[in-house]
Amino acid sequence: MLFAVTAPALGAILLISSSNIWLTRIQAMESWSIPVFLILTVFFVGLSLIPTHASSLISGMLFGLIEGPIYALFAVVAASYFAFQLMSFIIKDSAYDALLKRPSAAEIHAELLAKNGFKAILLIALIRLSPIMPFAGTNLLLAASKVKTSYFLNGSFLGLAPRVILVAMAGAGLAELDLSKSSNIWLALVGGISTLVLIFLIGKVVKKVYFNNNSKSYSQSS
Length: 222
What we know:
Elements: H1 2-17, H2 19-27, H3 33-46, H4 52-91, H5 94-100, H6 103-113, H7 117-129, H8 135-144, H9 149-171, H10 185-221
Helix pairs in contact: 3-4, 4-8, 4-9, 6-10, 7-9, 7-10
């Protein structure tokens, strides 16, 4: 988790400092620039070596206002899937088995991420929209929670799309890589609202689970 959270920031520094070397080379590849960008994004973003907003800006710079957001979204969602599968392989069932040993936690997990597909997709989308949980940390958390792949992909697509598309569009107007251009007042507003909704939904489920458990305990004692 520590690596997943800190590595993208360090990668961003290296990316900016060396942009005069690699950016012109990718631009010179012409038609090959698309697969090269996609492969490098899946690898570096998926391994938490660079942040998603950096790859989105680069996509806008390379491919323009229309194609840039499309390639950026495809690449970032593919990177999230790659990271999800990699984390699932590394963690295996250890975290999930530990969760199941705590009945209340297991029930909360089931209510949020297992019983209802729509609720799970909505929750994942809100997590992606919220600025609280970073991209790599979300991949790790969802892999440890054994979320269904279809829920993960759909929720990730919906949650990542607004930020990736807007940042890629901002990148289309840049002559050189500037990560400060990835900030947007509307993204901050949507992120804040999604965080509040996320807290409300989780709090509602936690309250429901503990109320039901206390009611069962009271009935059994009576």
